[in-house]
Amino acid sequence: MATMLEDTAPAIHRVDAKDGVATALRDLNAGETVAGPFGPLTLRDAVPKGHKVAIRDIAAGAEVIKFGWPIGKALSAIAPGQHVHVHNVATLLEGVEDYVYRPLPGDPLPAAGTRSFQGYRRANGRVGTRNEIWILCTVGCVGATSRRLAELANARFAGRVDGIHAFPHPFGCSQLGDDLDHTRELLAALVQHPNAGGVLVVGLGCENNQLKALLEAAPDIAPDRLRSFTTQMVSDEYETGLAMIEELVARAEQDRREAVPLSELVIGLKCGGSDGFSGVTANPLVGRVADAVAAAGGTPVLTEIPEIFGAERILMARARDEAVFDKIRDVVDDFKRYFIAHDQPIYDNPSPGNKAGGITTLDEKSLGAVQKAGRSTVVDVLRYGERVREHGLTLLEAPGNDAVSSTALTAAGATMILFTTGRGTPMGFPAPTVKIASNTGLAERKPNWIDFDAGPMLAGESAEDATERLLDLVVAVASGAETRSERNGEREIALWKQGVTV
To answer: Is residue 1 over pLDDT 50?
Structure first.
């Protein structure tokens, strides 16, 4: 016999009135009855927290709707109260598709407000949220040398700048053609980043990624902010490097924060380890913050191209003009062809962790993920390694891998990354990375990882109040407040290796 629990808290959440499924807000037991959008709903199956339950009949072969969009097709008839997941839903994604430019009228953005932050204005006009010394290397052979230099320099020059950080990587040699060019362009973009008050580039000497070519690709940095040397040409790389770092520290420690408007903020939008609540709480919340930044004249940057497959038409309909639509189409199609060329299905996503958290198909994951971009107009599309050119929502070419895409966001100019997660990760990246939990359980379980809890939205907190909370944190971090990953020393880069290795 079905039983109605006395607990009056909502047990399921429907995102859109068109949806045929709802998300379980707690573990649901087979046989219990909960309040649904169409009246009492009796559970035919047990449904784990974060997973989906059918709230209406779904015929075999019919589209399963969540977020108001199809997330897949039913493999068999699904009755109200049944668990909806990988056992009875399949993706609708196949291969390269035909897209037509059908612009939709944009939604009005929120009032820009008067918020400002305390940032570092650089000579080229860009504004940083940190004043650090960055040590970059041309090639993996001197990666450990770069890291040791940072350790020595932090001990010697402690407190004089916001920090001294090395970002080693394993590439730069045995690369050819476009693959080598992408490594050089990405590193050159990091050299020019406004969060670095000074940059030391360490080379080996015999690598494919020659130091001279790398520096020529980074013209947008003041000469007094840049030092470089090749280790094969000096007798003591640590003595040489520390002397150069001392010069950079002496220059950077003269910098002072000043009040700047949100129009100067570039925020990267990223999700990792998503769960069934990511598209309900954290991602749409970040989208509201992205809209507020865009309304103020700032620049939100969305990436993870494989994780917009199935939701790309939403972004295409918001392209500023047909030229931007063409760029979105091209970057999506190119990425699909990249999968196909390597004999991989384009829908081989979500990850096991995503599925355990309640995400069934890539279509569903993408529809939840694109909500990080809010509702503003897409003004530009960047290829991997390119830097932001315009104010406003920008799409960046990069894979879904957390480290690779977050590094690409930083290289594009993001001075902060808003990173949503339902499963959790300790990783941090060159730009301050704000970890936003989709559920309170994660925030309570991993307080040393998580900076912000979006879970109260499931318990009745209004979207407006949550947005104000997150905007306050964004301004605080942009003004120097330390994130958990910074406090834990989690600062990494990863490059996108696309070509052969010699």
So the answer is: no
Give the burial string for 155-168 (b: 16+ CB within 10 Å, else e): eebeeebbbbbbbb
CA 111 from chain center: how many Å? 24
Beta bridge partners of 137: 202
Q: At what angle do helices 177-191 and 402-412 cross, to 10 degrees?
A: 60
Token pair belonging to 138:
């041309």
* pLDDT given at position 5: 45
The token pair at 347 is: 């829908």
Q: What SS3 class is residue 332?
A: helix
Query: What does the CA dihedral 141, 138, 198, 193 come to, rounded to 10 degrees?
Result: -130
Q: What is the mean pLDDT of the chain?
A: 94
What are the tokens at 359?
């995400």
Q: Is residue 460 classed exposed, middle or buried when 0-12, 13-18 and 19+ CB atoms within 10 A define those classes? A: exposed
- The Cα 408–Cα 276 span in angstroms is 26
Contact criterion met (CB below 8 Å) for 182 and 147: no
Percent of the chain surpassing pLDDT 90: 84
Cα→Cα distances 394→64, 412, 452, 474, Å: 30, 10, 24, 19
Q: Which residue has the tokens 């990069």?
A: 398
pLDDT digits (tens, 9 = 90+) for 245-293: 999 999 999 999 999 999 999 999 999 988 889 999 999 999 999 999 9
pTM, whole model, 2 decimals? 0.93
Q: How much is the average pLDDT of 308-327?
A: 95
Q: Which of 76, 78, 82 lies closest to 51, judged by CA?
A: 82
Give ∠ CA 45-49-54 in degrees, rounded to 5.
45
Query: Bridge partners of 34?
Result: 41
Local structure of residue 424 (DSSP, 8 states): -
The CA distance from 471 to 436, in Å, is 12
Q: Please report the beta strands in 17-62, taking only residues with DSSP state E, as ranges in sequence order.
A: 21-24, 32-36, 39-42, 52-54
Pairing of the two strands 433-437 and 452-453: parallel
SS3 category, 361: coil
Tell me the β-bridge partners of 230: 203
User: What is the gyration radius of the CA atoms in the chain, in angstroms?
Assistant: 24
